[in-house]
């Protein structure tokens, strides 16, 4: 199989390679998702595009876990934005979650709560109760590279499929220009 974007040596329907995915991701992948094999040492966006093609920066999305706090209660959510942008945590996220303070969740929390590896967190297979906030530009992409739940491997998924994931809420302005 050939991946619809990028020039990866190995590409497979994700449903046929579940053993390479983090457990919650393996349980949630669908037929529209493609798994490409990548070097785990190059999972972070800058290293990934340097190794697999600068054009993939425009065709990738990053998923981050945020923690919102209000009255002693913490709400966890995931945010998915294009790799060329950053999450508007103190604006769009804070307002949408209705919290006084929002910040990136600590690594231990993100990894522990998702069951995924840091550097590979993906919107596929997130805890069911979490909101998944997706920038509207993600939905418009024909295909995007996202994490696979592990540092090794990436998923290639149509933007419309991401918008249909459980808990997904599409928001304008979630991704803002990177500083």
From TrEMBL:
Xref: InterPro entries: YbaK/aa-tRNA-synt-asso_dom_sf (IPR036754), YbaK/aa-tRNA-synth-assoc-dom (IPR007214)
Domain (YbaK/aminoacyl-tRNA synthetase-associated) ranges: 43-162
Protein name, as recorded: YbaK/EbsC family protein
Native source organism of the sequence: Actinacidiphila acididurans
